[in-house]
Amino acid sequence: MAELFHRKLERSAIGFVLAIIAAASVGGIVEIAPLFTIDQTVEEAPDMRVYTPLELAGRNIYLREGCYACHSQMVRTLRDEVERYGPYSLAVESQYDHPMLWGSKRTGPDLARVGGKYSDFWQVAHLTNPREVVPQSNMPAYPWLARNGLDMDDLAQHLRAQRAVGVPYTDEMIENASRDAYGQASPNSEHASGVVDRYGEDTQIRAFDGVATRVTEMDALVAYLQVLGRLTDAAFEDTAAPEEAPEPIE
Amino acid sequence: MSVTLTRNERQFANFISIIIFAFGVFLAAAGGNDPLSVHGFIIIAVGIAGFFFTADALYKPEPTEERLSYYYDEPIKAGVVLSMAWAVFAMFMGVWVASQLAWPNLAFEGAWSSFGRLRPVHTTGVIFGFGGNALIATSFHVVQRTSRARLPDQLSPWFVLVGYNLFCILAVTGYFIGITQSKEYAEPEWYADILLVIVWVTYFVLYLRTIARRKEPHIYVANWYYMAFILVVAILHVVNNIAIPVSLGHAKSYTAWAGVQDAMVQWWYGHNAVAFFLTAGFLGMLYYYLPVRAQRPIFSYRLSILSFWGITFFYMWAGSHHLHYTALPHWVQTLGMTFSVMLLVPSWASAGNALMTLNGAWGRVRDDATLRFIMIAAVFYGLSTFEGSFMAIRPVNALSHYTDWTVGHVHGGALGWVAMITFGAFYTLVPSLWRRERMYSAALVEVHFWLALAGTLVYVFAMWNSGIIQGLMWRTYTEEGSLAYSFLDSLVAMYPYYIARAFGGLLFLLGTIVGAYNIWMTIKAAPLAVPRKSDVPYSDAVAVPGE
Amino acid sequence: MNIDHESLVAFAKSWGLFYLIAFTICVLIYTFWPSNRKKFDKAKKSILDQGDEPWE
């Protein structure tokens, strides 16, 4: 490295590097820096809750399978989107999403408000073979999800890592992560009630894949899909009216 | 390769192999049942291979001092071959995933082979495998020639090349087994990201050291673009990939950014990866190989400087146009749109500069398919940047976003600009690197050109049609004021275009295979007995490569 | 954080613009500085001298 700083020629190269950094960094800083204070402008959502361990595990399966490549989770502020999918997405709704899954392509429909739209049974059948339910679909089939048991042992570590990046999981939630994951998919078990205590009355506790004896990856993924758009009601309260789409080409 | 290293460098390479091996052992052991251990074993294998490879050469005779009067071309040759290998692999994956959209059963119900896992294999393979290796190889070539100086040592270029390809392999194998951050174009997990940082710093220092040894007082503009590419990609990569791993034994990590801020960071990264990886770096290629191939100086050197600073400055502001009508604050959206439109000025300055350089040499463009590759690349660069600025306008984006139009736009740039300029550069570079008189077959270059052009056009037109139809169907209302089409209606309407798109991709892939074959046969051919006239150190004689 | 969002946005927007203008002026001066002309002309022709060995 020392050789770089000696002669005049090399100093000009270093100066050039600094000029590139100066030119290239400002745009990013201007756009990103104010977002550090965005929580001042984000809508109030006191009812917003964090993902349960089972939902988080489901979300990680959603990530693993690359679902974001074809499904967005961001209803834009356009009238047709609001009528098709539901109220447009608010910033607060993804405040605990590491990473966000707004997506960039809709080969399939938007999923921001899919929670509760279909039954668990429909979701399981559809994930196992989409063409059984929707003959024209081009979505891949995921039959192995119902066969794979869910790995729940290290969920406490996952919650701890989530807390390290800013998601407000309590010590109690972390301690009980594995039990809560099991309990949420096993309504008859002793662990089911703890989930409601920690994550609220509205938490859905069911055998999502229809089998109560075993917690599978299907349980986790369906639990996640069924909570999408339902972590808070903020978007359903009075927000500004959506925009008309620009005049369609006649 | 290893015999071109000095003895000290071989020892050091040996030492690095041991460190890589140890790192692999650590990951494999810490990973346990986690998929991380698979990557541990891959890294172990690379460490062992490196160890034996360098140990084998440890006591062979050292290269003579005479080497210093030549450019160091061995890593460039390896980079070209790797780049073409990645191209064939990743474009094949592209054709496969495209076909899955038309015929979903082509995933064969496998986990590893489903669309969501293969799609990043395709994107990473073409962008980082094909494009990245092409950039590294050509940058080593350009910086030596324009600085009139040899690379400062023999080890670091190999470290960059091997380390970079290890990163690509970790990335791609990871997707198959479900390791991904799910951040578009930044899918590899934390340990691969750290590896890339080390490789990239070495690359940057190597580039600066070579420039510091230059005999030309002025740094030629192509190097500016390559330096901006290296430097800014480093900044983007680090900021976007800040994450906390679940533990040192988990491949999985959680990104530091959340929600709206993550969206902005992600598209600041994503858009500028396009800007500095797929644009600045390849403009560096254009500004060197175009004048050399055409044997005409660039039309306006000043214009190239202005467009350099314009691109470096403006691109950074434009990322938020990926987030129109979303929960991102409105002012950021407007800012992104404004700068995206302004970006057209430096972009067209570059495209125009390239085409004006060829003005007066159209006869040669007609006869020489290699030069035609470069010319078409400049045309597509102009078209894609215009399209990009257009799509960044809010109301246009309302229609185009989330549709296949975006995919068409990206491929217009990736196939028409990035791949075409790379092939043009390779066909110029390969005969001179391997001391061949010309490419093995000029006819096959011609075949490649037409396949590539036809493939690109079929692809882009299919996606324009499907994207606009899709966008319009989503927003069409009936007389009664309700939505006219279900989502499924719009999907059914896409099928013919998905078939056409897969066919276009197939044509492009066939072209690439023809190109790879042609390059391979050129390498296998006998070298020139007498050095070409152009090999004589610095004379006034100007030769046209390949003629 | 103590800085309020609105003022940070205002600062970013206004100074971003000044920065853009200042930057443009610097680049234009560099590009059109008369004594740089010779350097640029030489650079643009020099790469066509195809000597394929490093200079000593």
Can you describe this structure in just a few lines?
The complex is a heterotrimer of chains A (250), B (547) and C (56). Chain A has helices at 8-32, 53-64, 79-85, 120-128, 130-133, 144-147, 155-164, 171-175, 177-185, 192-199, 217-227. Chain A has 250 residues and is an all-alpha fold.
Which characteristics define this entry?
heterotrimer, A: 250 residues, mainly alpha, 42% helix, B: 547 residues, Cytochrome C Oxidase, Chain A, 2 domains, two-stranded antiparallel ribbon, globular
List the helices and strands and how they pair.
The complex is a heterotrimer of chains A (250), B (547) and C (56).
Chain A: H1 8-32, H2 53-64, H3 79-85, H4 120-128, H5 130-133, H6 144-147, H7 155-164, H8 171-175, H9 177-185, H10 192-199, H11 217-227
Helix pairs in contact in A: 2-11, 9-10
Chain B: H1 7-31, H2 36-57, H3 74-102, H4 115-147, H5 155-176, H6 190-212, H7 221-240, E1 243-245, E2 253-255, H8 259-294, H9 301-314, H10 330-342, H11 344-358, H12 362-367, H13 369-391, H14 394-400, H15 404-433, H16 442-475, H17 487-524
Antiparallel strand pairs in B: 1-2
Helix pairs in contact in B: 1-2, 2-5, 3-4, 3-5, 3-17, 4-5, 4-8, 4-15, 5-6, 6-7, 7-8, 7-9, 8-9, 8-11, 8-13, 8-15, 9-11, 11-13, 13-15, 13-16, 15-16, 15-17, 16-17
Chain C: H1 5-32, H2 36-46
- Looking at this structure, what is the CATH superfamily of the largest domain in chain B? Cytochrome c oxidase-like, subunit I domain
Uncertain stretches of chain A: none
Helix-residue proportion of chain B:
over 70%
Biggest beta sheet attributes of chain A: none
Head-to-tail CA distance between termini of chain B = 30 Å
Instruction: Encode the helix/strand succession of chain A as letters.
Output: HHHHHHHHHHH
Q: What series of H and E elements makes up the topology of chain B?
A: HHHHHHHEEHHHHHHHHHH
The major sheet of chain B is characterized as: 2 strands, antiparallel
Q: How many distinct helices of chain A? A: 11
Please provide a written account of the structure.
The complex is a heterotrimer of chains A (250), B (547) and C (56). In chain A, helix 2 crosses helix 11 and helix 9 packs across helix 10. Chain A has 250 residues and is an all-alpha fold. Helices cover 42% and strands 0% of the residues of chain A. By secondary structure, chain B is an all-alpha fold. Chain B is 71% helix and 1% strand. Chain B has 17 helices and 2 strands. The longest helix of chain B is centred in the last third of the chain and has 38 residues. Chain C is an all-alpha fold and 56 residues long. Helix content of chain C is 70%, strand content 0%. Chain C has 2 helices and no strands. At the A-B interface, helix 1, helix 2, helix 3 and helix 7 of A face helix 3, helix 4, helix 6, helix 7 and strand 1 of B.
